[in-house]
Amino acid sequence: MSGEVRIENPAKDTYVLRNTSGKALDEVMVDLARTGATSQDLPAGMDLAPEEGVEFHLHHHGGYHPPASMHVRWQGGPEWVEVPVS
């Protein structure tokens, strides 16, 4: 888990990746391969200011279940951090 970012799920296919670190995070990415879904607007190399959030959508296929967590990384941070979806 990480106190640097949070992933919110305000609607069925809609997610918000939010920077909760209190500092700018550069090159923020979500690992799509571990979600079991597809997306055309997944954060990939974005810069996020403190408290800034970016909305993205995961597209479900067949028996897909929404993820309970996603893996995120950013420049200068750990390789991949598992972040729970809230």
Keyword list:
mainly beta; 86 residues; three-stranded antiparallel beta sheet; 44% strand; four-stranded antiparallel beta sheet
- Give the spatial strand order of the biggest sheet: 4-3-6-7
Figure out the total of helices. Answer: 0
Radius of gyration (Å): 12 Å
| Residue runs with pLDDT of under 50 for 5 or more positions | none
Number of strands: 7
How would a crystallographer describe the biggest sheet? 4 strands, antiparallel
Range of strand content: 35-45%
What does this structure look like?
This protein is mostly beta strands and 86 residues long. Helix content is 0%, strand content 44%. The protein is built from no helices and 7 strands. A 4-stranded antiparallel beta sheet has the order 4-3-6-7, with no helix packed on it. It has a 3-stranded antiparallel beta sheet with strand order 1-2-5, with no helix packed on it. The relative contact order is 0.34. The model has no long low-confidence stretch (mean pLDDT 90).
Write a concise synopsis of the structure shown:
With 86 residues, the protein is mainly beta. 0% of the residues lie in helices and 44% in strands.
Secondary-structure blueprint:
Layout lengths: L4 E7 L2 E6 L5 E6 L13 E5 L4 E5 L11 E5 L7 E4 L2
